[in-house]
Amino acid sequence: MTVSRIEKIVDLLSYKSKEIIMTNNFSVLFKKYSVPVLLIIIGLALLIVGLANNQGSTFMLSAVLMFVAAGLSLLYSSGKLKTMMLVVFGVLAGLVAIVLLSISWTEVSSEMKEQAKVDLMQKTAKQNLEDIIYIQKEYQERNGVFAGTWEELIDFVKNGKVDYINSEGSVPSRKYDAAERSYLYGDNRAIDVNMTELEAYRLSKWQAGPNWEKDFNNFKRDTTKVSLIQSKFQSKPYLEARKLTGVGPFYPDSLRFIPFTKGKREWNLKTKDSLDVGDGVKAPAVRVKGILPFTKEEMFFGSLTSPNQLDASWQNK
User: Fold this and answer.
1) Enclosing H/E stretch for 273
2) Which stretches of the chain are DSSP H helices?
3) Is residue 225 part of a domain?
4) What is the pLDDT of residue 260?
5) Domains: count for the chain
């Protein structure tokens, strides 16, 4: 074996030896400092989360204590802190951090539940007022005035009748012919536009007409009286909408009460049957308002100075 070959072998062994030493050193460093680094990362993560979400002082103190624990662990790993001191400080810091985190989690959970409660209260209040607006419109259409008491309004919900249009078939997309013009108007007016809904309805009553079988046999526009509570508040779309928003079932007797007050506070209902709007014209007015619990927000609709004004406070938000 030549001298050069021997030197190469020695160099290779030396390189491998250094590589093994470096690997061993890295392994030792990893074992010594992995825990402190992990604690620092956790503390940093807590600090970032706390600052980003405006967490309270309890949560932020927990992050600081996590940094303290990381510092103690780092001192111990470097040999600058005795085991007993580490145990004492570490256990104390860990226990305090756990307690503070538990308190912070409880506070956050409580705040989330409280916010969910407020959201449900606001949704329920809005839904109830929207229902009252609908009922008042129907009541005024039939009586000329708005319901002035909760008893009148709730009785109308339970026993009132409203118009229901039974609609079948569609208006033919054509002009009426000369025979249909004679039936409708009895004159020679120009036939230059397609027939209207009303004209189609009148022609549907002319069974002897030349186009009745083709265009009007299945055409119906009949108005009947139906129960208000069934047509509106027991309809499938309305019930599904309430279920989707989570406001619960519809109870007529609960409309008068502000939600989440356990029936102790009512919406303030005021009406004017004959509001003078000038030129001898008079019209009714209504206003319903109340202060919501928790937020002390005023929610209302209507006006006692503008007739038939039913704008709501939440519509401008």
Assistant:
1) strand 268-276
2) 3-52, 57-77, 83-143, 150-159, 178-184, 197-204, 228, 236-245
3) no
4) 92
5) 3
